[in-house]
Write a structure and sequence with these properties.
This protein has 9 helices and 6 strands; from the N terminus they run βαααααβαβαβαββα. By secondary structure, the protein is α/β, with parallel strands linked by helices. It folds into 2 domains: 136 residues, Rossmann fold (3-Layer(aba) Sandwich), CATH 3.40.50; 62 residues, DNA polymerase, domain 1. Strands 3-2-1-4-5-6 form a 6-stranded parallel β-sheet, with no helix packed on it.
């Protein structure tokens, strides 16, 4: 699998949406619908064109937000407030198994997300796991570059004052793991996004991460 000489891990980074809760919950689908609504109502993109345009932004710029900023000069804060105007509690509730798993990890635990801080706090509060994260690095903290822009990951390491080799990143998007891998992070993919050289470990759900960590961190798990 990986490394005879184990890295000295200091921090584990978790993506937020579709990572800490299952994709099947549907929250991100609701957010995607609001992205299309924003493009139609606020930007003036024809409704029939909006889905293809959003896909183009995702492929060309990494996120819909970045594409809209680059090509339509929108206010990113306005976009984020609009698209995240959904209640996570309508899609899932508290997750005692996630809370228990996080309690066993004695590394620094940090959220690294393309969403904004307010949305992140709402999700963590509904899941009842907010107390386990020392820091939330949201899209504003990474200067609206967003994953998978390489500078976003460098900004994260600057904020943490750590080398990539000391970090583990847990993500539901394989392409968002590529810059992390390039910086020396150990990468864990949640769900099935297809094979990628950037993925060190692939597991079906967030709850399977614990077994990976038991192998990576024999001395950094609480008993």
């Amino acid at each position: 699998m990986r490394h005879n000489n184990r890295p000295y891990y200091r921090c584990i980074l978790f993506d937020l949406d579709d990572t800490l809760y299952p994709r099947e919950a549907g929250l991100m689908n609701a957010i995607y619908e609001r992205m299309l609504l924003y493009m139609v109502q606020k930007v003036g993109i024809p409704a029939d064109d909006a889905p293809l345009k959003r896909r183009y932004f995702y492929q060309e710029y990494g996120t819909t937000l970045r594409g809209l900023v680059e090509e339509h000069r929108i206010d990113p804060l306005d976009f984020l407030e609009f698209v995240h105007n959904v209640n996570p509690a309508d899609f899932f509730g508290a997750s005692p198994p996630l809370k228990r798993m996080l309690e066993t990890i004695s590394l620094r635990k940090v959220i690294f997300t393309n969403s904004d801080l307010a949305h992140c706090r709402r999700v963590l509060q509904v899941l009842d796991v907010q107390a386990h994260f020392e820091l939330i690095i949201d899209i504003k903290e990474i200067n609206y570059l967003s994953k998978p822009h390489p500078l976003a990951y460098r900004r994260v390491l600057e904020l943490l004052d750590l080398p990539g080799e000391s970090c583990i990143l847990v993500e539901d998007s394989a392409r968002n793991l590529i810059p992390a891998k390039d910086l020396g992070m150990t990468t864990i993919l949640i769900g099935d996004s297809g094979p990628s050289l950037a993925v060190d470990y692939a597991v079906p759900t967030i709850f399977h991460v614990e077994k990976i960590l038991q192998n990576l961190l024999p001395d950094a798990l609480s008993r």
